[in-house]
Amino acid sequence: MPLPSTVEELATWIELEYRRKPGSMVFAAMFADGNSATGGSDWNFGAVISLEDCDPEHLFAEIGMTISFRRRETILQRRAGYGALAVSVLLRYCFNLPSDSPPGLGLRRVGVHSLPNNAATHKLAKRLGFRLEGKQRWCRVVDVANGKVGNGQTLRKGDVSGSPGIDAHYFSMCWDEWEGHGRDVVQHILACGLRCGAKL
């Protein structure tokens, strides 16, 4: 399915790619700016973020799509970036134990795929403490109709798809890395970017 370009297409895409798959979840990340005239917090829609391939038996999930929205940012939020803030809140939810505050899923491992030319995702993953585990070759078929470029490799004769393939970098963070330094990095990002609050 092509990437959505309208709200209606986004709703259909989320329904088909996430809601109908038991191992996938989509979250709306809301951020409070604390600038309400009444002294309360104004909650703004900041991002859509997903978990894919969730495995409750093996305590694993992968961060999927992240779409951040940049309207009504405070200076602090602009510095941290809505995407970084959304991923930070999601990581806290994934790794925190159910007995923690705020409670979480208690996962052992969280992964993320990134296309080789997605420098922003590579930078954010490293900043948050993810490790590059390797390159997954031929991991997806490229939708050339959306202007995507493949891995430059020649297709084998008789390829079923006929479309180029693409490679991806795979990053992961495990619970011990989270407790060793990941939690501190996320807390710092949330403290710098959100003086008043964030929720999924």
TrEMBL record:
SUPFAM superfamilies listed in its UniProt record: Acyl-CoA N-acyltransferases (Nat) (SSF55729)
InterPro entries named among the record's database cross-references: Acyl_CoA_acyltransferase (IPR016181), GNAT_dom (IPR000182), Ribosomal_N-acetyltransferase (IPR051908)
Domain N-acetyltransferase as annotated: residue spans: 2-131
Pfam families assigned: Acetyltransf_3 (PF13302)
Molecular function GO labels: protein N-terminal-serine acetyltransferase activity; protein-N-terminal-alanine acetyltransferase activity
Protein name stated in the entry: N-acetyltransferase domain-containing protein
Source organism (scientific name): Schizopora paradoxa
Taxonomic lineage: Eukaryota, Fungi, Dikarya, Basidiomycota, Agaricomycotina
